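thought: fold this chain, then report.
action: predict
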Amino acid sequence: MSDRIDNHSPRITPEVSSRWLPGLDLLRAVWIFFVLCMHANLTQIASIHGGAGDQADLFDAVRFHLLCAAVPGFLIMSCFLQARKHLSGWSEHKNHLMDLCYLYAFWVGLWVLLTRSRPEMSPLGIVEFGMRGGGWAYYYFFVLIFVHGIAALTNKATNALVWWCLAISAGIVLIAFWMMSADAFAWTRIPTYWWPMAFLPTAFIGILLARYEPQLRASPTRTRRWAVVGLVVLGLLCLLEWRWAAPRVSGELREFLPEYLRLSPTLLATLFMVGALFLGQFHAVIRYVARNSLGIFCLHVFFLGGIGKLMARFIPDPLWAGVVCVIVTMIAASILTELLRFVMKARLI
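observation:
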């Protein structure tokens, strides 16, 4: 879910067959489904429907530790694919960043034009409005530019320096989460899902995965051992995060934890990326959804709510109505993406 180079599965020619990673198709398809599930509030509906009340349940854990891996996962994938190109000069990085800026300008501009959203008329309000991509889902494009800028600046750094940057950025995220927890769970009052700081580690993870890819693929046994270690660390992180979580919440959003200002979603996405290096080609349906994942993301924000209201009129069970809404939205957005490719530049969708 990034620009046209990173998002679409390349044509399988002799020149690119050795570089094409079919496992990433599966991740794109699964992760865009996760994004739609989050935007449709499926887990919150399931918790309320199941009578969880103001305490956390299994659906909340699924949301915060599985669905939330999608956005950092897309960012890691994008930085990973960009690092694999071994761009030599700043001009090449600049051209790539300009492509991302065009992507941001087009979709945020279209969102602002159609929804007539406006910033709070203050310097801070205008800056926040821009960073949030007009107010909602398109914050992703600002974050994408941010992490690719960081990746471009550290592209020629030594492995040791990149590891240190990763450790420092992870520490920043962990400290920020702890401070907000100590401040009466401040994320329940201040939205943090759009903060670029929360995604800073993804740039360094993408670079390191690209550099260590040959070793990871050459030694599956050693990679599995490291993956087990990663799973243990992931479990410890999840326990720590729930120790700092809000014990009770009010309202339907069920904000026990911040969505992305934590380390477990990023670590889980990293483990998914490592596993994807060893996967083979998938069914054409998976490849179709993967090819259109960026388009699904760009378009779904305009009609997901409308489809949800329509499904609610015909399906009395709110959970099933939400599930059908997500599936219908994916199908409609992917078809519309294919149609729009005939009349729009591919880099915009």
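thought: worth noting. Confidence is low (pLDDT under 50) at residues 2-18.
final: tokens above.
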